[in-house]
Amino acid sequence: MVNQPDQSAQGEQKYPPLERIPQHVGIIMDGNGRWAKARGLPRTAGHRAGTENLRRVLRAAVEFGIPILTIYAFSTENWGRPSGEVQALLSILERVIDRELAELHAEGVCLRHIGHLERLPARLQQKVRDAIELTRNNRRLILNVAFDYGGRAELVDAIRRIIADGVPAEQVNEELVSRYLYTAELSDPDLIIRTSGEMRISNFLIWQGAYAEFYVTPTLWPDFDKDELYKALVEYNRRQRRFGLVPES
Ligand code: FPP
Predict the structure, then answer these.
(1) Residues 177, 161: contact at Cβ < 8 Å?
(2) 244 falls within a domain
(3) Residue at 40 is within a domain
(4) Domain-embedded: residue 135
(5) pTM of the prediction?
């Protein structure tokens, strides 16, 4: 992950610096299945290509100075997919930890997880916990992996814990709810990217993304490269974030 500016033969920068870099980017990595189908390959080949692409996007995110990335790798609804595909996605997570963890750690990536860990196989749960522990003090990039994650389940979990903690009703406000979410220590996403053209939030960061800028590209996830990420950042810089206010306020 070397931060070398890309230059054309004429010496102009391929990725001119941008005024605003989102502090937290969420990505709905969609389109692996269609990418595979278009090539006559099984869907799992699309997920493998998507995983390869993740390395490229992580590198690009570091180069562009994005500090927090949350990726939607497996939703609470994805358990309903054919068992072979579910197994493949679990294996991918395990393989990423087995094969990539040392490099991610060396590159200063802090791994986090949001979602339900306890439904994963015990061995994989332990690997995830160990990876989080190993990388906890890294700060070059926080990579938050949403795996067995659903925004509604997250809110249900938060409400249960608020009640279990005996918080009086009058003390429940937005700030308190945020502190009970899986993302309690992270800022809300400024930008949510969805690949493959679908115009849906699909239960991803539904509370935290209330004011995120939403960027949808028809590009399928395995093809979403550095140029595509830069395009999303350019578009983000064009947006006027108003948070429900009028421009002059
Ligand atoms: C959506 O594409 C993608 C997923 C459900 C899985 C995303 C997972 C990866 C990219 C692998 C990286 C994972 C880890 C654990 C780091 P889709 O299958 O819904 O595509 P389709 O809509 O074209 O069928």
Answers:
(1) no
(2) no
(3) yes
(4) yes
(5) 0.93
Whose CA is closest to atom 18 on ligand 1?
33
What CATH number has the domain bearing residue 60?
3.40.1180.10
Q: What are the tens digits of pLDDT across the range 141-151?
A: 999 999 999 99
Ligand 1 close to Cβ of residue 109 (< 6 A): no
Query: In this predicted model, what pLDDT tens digit does every residue of 107-159 receive, in sequence order?
Result: 999 999 999 999 999 999 999 999 999 999 999 999 999 999 999 999 999 99
Atom 8 of ligand 1 has which residue's CA nearest to it?
A: 73
Establish whether residue 32 lines the binding site of ligand 1, counting it when its CB lies within 6 angstroms of any ligand atom.
yes
Radius of gyration of the chain (CA): 19
For residue 12, being part of any structural domain is answered with no
Q: 184 lies in which domain range?
A: 24-238
3-state secondary structure of 28: strand
Determine the angle formed by the axes of helices 83-106 and 122-135, rounding to 10 degrees: 20
Q: Which residue has the CA at smallest separation from atom 3 of ligand 1?
A: 30
Q: How many separate domains does the chain show?
A: 1
Can 157 be counted among the known catalytic residues?
Answer: no
Ligand 1 lined by 78 (C-beta under 6 Å):
yes
70-68-196 Cα angle (round to 5): 40
